[in-house]
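Kindly draft a polypeptide, keeping tokens residue-aligned:

***
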Amino acid sequence: MKQFPRTEVEGISLSRYLIGSNWLLGFSHTGPAADAQIKEKFDTPEKFMPILEACLPYGIDSIMAPFGDAPNLVRAIKEVEQKTGHGVIMVDTPFIDVSNTPEGYRAAEKKIRECSERGSKICLIHHAAAEKLVDKNEEVLHRLDDYTSMIREAGMVPGLSAHMPELVVYSDQN
């Protein structure tokens, strides 16, 4: 069977095609009715498994999701890994607290540790959190190093998920 191309990120071999999760977890970006319909369709681990099993034979073994909010998907991944003997590379996109307070830092650190404990290899700060760090006037992402350090300390490769173009530009600049 023909294998999908791969790329390497800090020593981790990823399929160049990532299995996305918006349409598996109810993030349709079209409205509440579509979100509810998706969540109803994928309400057990068993309902995720055919999608994962269809991708693996082609070497598509990397999936990106906010796994902390998707226990059924995490269970499906673990079951598919056990069933097929093939590992799945989890790229986590946690919604972390980026408030500049001791409580915010503790909450962020806890969520990041949970990503690692679930088995995620890469942790991309979800755009909803990362965009709060953007300073368009200064063209910087404030305190980004604090969070990327937490991710590295938890044994994962850090990164950002982005919808805002400035997020990519400023992270590259800085």
User: Anything to note?
Assistant: The two ends are 42 Å apart (CA to CA). The mean pLDDT is 95. Residues 48 and 64 are 14 Å apart (CA to CA).
